[in-house]
């Protein structure tokens, strides 16, 4: 039988363990290759047109909204002016339709107020 001898095991050199690190957005962006080729342009063209279309729609809608708001404020001021005119005319009408004022205006025309009450004619 063969003799078994105790021997030391040769330990291999310890290997460095690389721990994967999370790469941040800015680091990825800094290391990104910014070369633009024709294939890349054709791939992103639909997206660029899509975003441009909605950008133009957004700008047009903004202009339309501002114009409508200006018109509404102008019309609101105009309505306030008409309300003031209406109240002034209504006040003047109420004043002019009073009995004393009507009597004074009638006297200028040569009409007099009747002193006797009206007589009802009956059959």
Automatic annotation (TrEMBL):
InterPro entries xref list: FtsL-like (IPR045755)
Q: Note whether Membrane occurs among the keywords.
A: yes
Presence of keyword Transmembrane? yes
Q: Which UniProt keywords apply?
A: Membrane, Transmembrane, Transmembrane helix
Q: Which domain of life is it from?
A: Bacteria
Residue ranges of the TM segments: 40-60
- Pfam families found in the cross-reference section: FtsL_2 (PF19579)
Name by which UniProt lists this protein: Cell division protein FtsL
């Amino acid at each position: 039988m063969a003799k078994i001898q105790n021997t030391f095991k040769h330990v291999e050199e310890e290997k460095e363990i690389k721990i994967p690190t999370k790469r941040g957005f800015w680091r990825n962006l800094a290391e990104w290759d910014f070369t633009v080729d024709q294939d890349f342009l054709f791939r992103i063209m639909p997206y660029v047109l899509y975003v441009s279309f909605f950008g133009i729609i957004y700008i047009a809608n903004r202009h339309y909204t501002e114009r409508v708001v200006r018109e509404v404020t102008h019309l609101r001021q105009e309505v306030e002016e008409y309300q003031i005119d209406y109240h002034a005319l209504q006040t003047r009408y109420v004043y002019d339709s009073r009995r004393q004022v009507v009597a004074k205006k009638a006297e200028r025309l040569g009409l007099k107020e009747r002193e006797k009450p009206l007589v009802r004619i009956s059959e």
